[in-house]
Amino acid sequence: MCSISFIGAGNVAMRFSLALAEAGYKIGTIYGRSEKNVSKVVKTLERNGFNAKPSFSISDVFSSSVVIIAVSDNAIPQVVSELVKTVEALDMEYSPIFLHTSGATDINVFNPLKELGVRCGVLYPLMTLNSNKNIEFKDVPLLLESMDGEIDDVLDEIATNLNSEHYFYSSKDRLKMHVAAVFTCNFVNHILSMGFSVIGRDTPLLLPLTLESVRNCFLHSPDSVLTGPARRGDMVTIEKHLGLLEELGMGEQKEIYSMFTDMIMKKFNK
User: Fold this and answer.
1) Which residue from 3, 4, 33, 199 has the least number of CB within 10 angstroms?
2) Domain covering 3-169: architecture
3) Homologous superfamily, domain 176-268
4) How many CB atoms lie within 10 A of CB 95?
């Protein structure tokens, strides 16, 4: 298998590098600007029996066949600019394949590299990744994209070796999925936090209800399994809830409760 290096040393680099090493890939260089983060990734790989070279020079990643750019979305254009300068300076006959891992960044961010003949693509994990939590990539859907389809085979091979369910998505469709993921993951997380703050204790009692609700949404449809006072148009209960939130001084929770109640009632109780 080919050698894979990383630009970035955060959560995504940690999980991807370990999973790829376990799948049989050689991890070349971990490049980053934070010595602490780079060291953490390298040492984690070493503890699991794998080697990687820490680096603070972006040119070092060019010794690998594939380079995964695992940085924040806002940093990707800057990384591409640095890579363009490095490609021009090194004047290499063959350059690595560069892949970014962003759900919201268009593949056209790579256009400056493409103009130099560099092959590029996207390897987006549809999952929240935490450097401190192990994850099986067989449970992580991967959305893939390559410029002009020229590295479809490489992307397919990497995803297959990770045992991941994978699909080729255009940048626009990947962005749609990213927006959907924000609603179903990030916003749900915040709503759960707000719900926990109301009761303040015994929050595990809410787990069976929460899991069953999510499960039913995917087995059927969210609209068909929705229950609760807003769905029934139960204004007596709604007023009790709003009164309690007012009494508890939970203005934000009251505002969100009112907003969702209005949306549900307009949709179902016309």
Assistant:
1) 199
2) 3-Layer(aba) Sandwich (3.40)
3) ProC-like, C-terminal domain (1.10.1040.20)
4) 19
Per-residue pLDDT of the chain (270 residues), as tens digits, is 799 999 999 999 999 999 999 999 999 999 999 999 999 999 999 999 999 999 999 999 999 999 999 999 999 999 999 999 999 998 877 889 999 999 999 999 999 999 999 999 999 999 998 877 788 999 999 999 999 888 999 999 999 999 999 999 999 999 999 999 999 999 999 999 999 999 999 999 999 999 999 999 999 999 999 999 999 999 999 999 999 999 999 999 999 999 999 999 999 976
- Lookup result for tokens 């990770």: 162
Handedness of CA 218, 224, 225, 228 (dihedral sign): positive
SS3 category, 29: strand
Beta-carbon contacts of residue 130 (< 8 Å; ≥ 6 apart): 11, 15
- What phi and psi, each to the nearest 5 degrees, are found at residue 139? -100, 5
- Give the list of residues 6+ apart from residue 199 with CB closer than 8 angstroms, or none: 206
Cβ-based neighbours of 141, under 8 Å, separated by 6 or more: 125, 126, 127, 164, 165, 166, 167
86 residue type, one letter: T
Sheet containing 120-125: order of strands: 53-55, 26-31, 3-7, 66-69, 97-100, 120-125, 142-146, 166-168
Q: Taking a C-beta distance cutoff of 8 angstroms, is the pair 68, 6 a contact?
A: yes
> What is the value of pTM for the model shown?
0.92
User: Euclidean distance between the first and final Cα of the chain, in Å?
Assistant: 60
